Amino acid sequence: MVVPRPVRTENSAASPFVLTDAARISVAGIGADGVARLLSAELASDCGREPAIVAEPPAYGDIAIVIAPGEGPHEDGSDSAEGYTLEVSAEAVRIGAATTAGAFWGVQTLRQLLPAACDGEPLSIDAVRIHDNPRYAYRGAMLDVARHFFTPAEVKRFIDAIVLLKLNHLHLHLTDDQGWRIQIESWPELTRIGGSTGSDGSRGGFYTQAQFRDLVSYAAERHITVVPEIDMPGHTNAALASYPELNPGGVAPALYTGSEVGFSTLRTGDPVTQRFVRDVIREVAALTPGPYLHLGGDECLSTTDADFAAFVQDAFRVVAENGKTPVGWHEVGKAGGLPAGTIGQYWDFTAPRGRAAELALSFVRDGGSVIMSPSDVAYLDIVYAEGDPIGQDWTGSPTTLRDSFFWDPARIVPGLGDAHILGVEAPLWTETVATIEEVEQMVFPRLAAVAEVGWSTAPADTEPVVAARDLADFSDRLASLAEHWDAAGTNYRRVPEVAWPARWSSGAARSGAATPAPREPATEVTEAAR
Ligand code: ACM
Description:
Helix 1 (32-47) runs parallel beside helix 2 (100-113) and helix 3 (152-163) packs parallel to helix 5 (209-221). The model is unreliable at 505-530 (pLDDT under 50). The strands form four sheets. An eight-stranded parallel sheet has the order 14-11-10-19-18-17-16-15. It has a seven-stranded mixed sheet with strand order 1-9-6-7-5-3-4, covered by helices on one side. It has two domains: 8-132, Chitobiase/beta-hexosaminidase domain 2-like (Chitobiase, domain 2), CATH 3.30.379.10; 139-467, Glycosidases (TIM Barrel). With 530 residues, it is α/β, with parallel strands linked by helices. The chain has helices at residues 32-47, 100-113, 152-163, 189-192, 209-221, 237-242, 271-287, 305-321, 356-365, 375-378, 401-405, 436-443, 446-455, 465-468, 471-488, 506-511, 521-529, and strands at residues 8-11, 17-19, 24-28, 52-54, 62-67, 84-88, 92-97, 123-125, 128-132, 138-144, 169-173, 175-176, 179-180, 225-229, 292-294, 325-329, 343-346, 370-372, 421-428. Bound molecules: acetamide.
């Protein structure tokens, strides 16, 4: 009962493993100790057990983590960057992997196999052998902290929740018209002024560079790479409001708290703007050890085509000069002349409109790859159902769990197959999403569906996607995962496709984890009645 669905699971009728208070975590191989420390901490918070870590062979009833070449899931012994094997028997649990990332994902599977409500009864896991590795190297979630700001503690809570789904990238949309959320030492007004408010006049806020570094390292310990996005040349009102000299005539616009898009632009060719772009990119690049820096480039409706091309070519080159691989929303493909290897993020529909398919392919032609975020299935700010008080509806219809589940990244843009798809990402835009509880309500469970699309085995070429994916099986696994969400106090939308567990599980009661009332109790009642 694991989400995302493992590549191969062999259940067994043999005796189960029982996790007792005497269990230890036996470690072997470089990095196993760090993975074991996280497992021990997670077991402490999940189930009140905190096994000791020992560098000796496992005894009966122990959990072993072994990291060594050939320990991965491949039968031929070849190593997999993130794969693992997990064997559960009465004697022991054994996680094997060639890398620490693989072992860490094996640990996440183990957590899901353990009962969520661990109060007192023997904690047993049925005997099983799992061989597992991801389909895509990039599996991401995006959090828009610009429209509504989320504190470092809230972002860590989000990281903790996405780890369980084996997502390995967190894209932070750090700047937009409504807010600038990352301290730039050479341009301090960006956060003092531009960070002072947000959508609907919400609380402002920003990350100091120290806080951001701490977030990056918290994520990295959990094998999540933070992808910072500084959106430009459009979506820049917060910056323009902070510095008059970035504007024509030296007059700054007012701060903006509405939800329109496309009205702001930085100035192509202006020397102050060029210095601004270079300073910001240099400081942000220095803040993250990850390979990517996202420069946005979407919805530049107030930038002429010629200015857009010149701006994007220059700014993306600066990213490359600072040692990072540039990422942009697919519109930046219009510019041409981007650094080799630039990654495009596709956000058009599952049936591409206009030039979207051609622009997605342009990244491949120039030696890059594409992250798939089709907005009609992977945008998690879109309402679940008509009339929802939170969420957007611009894609034309709600996005159900079923929609987020029945799609395939390699069946969207003709000619764009897995060889050129870096992975998948589910963005959450927060114009209407004000609290971390609402964030969780919007993303869970649909994010679990996108995580499964990104991790689990691709459908066979000849197989229709609806035949290859089993919604009933997924729903059963989600119901089991939801017991863990309840125990951890993670919110989720109780969509009608799933037979959810009773809300107040003993685990939730034991840990005292409150599930805050959603802002829209009426919606839940309606769904339950369906
Ligand atoms: C976007 O949704 N404007 C990338």
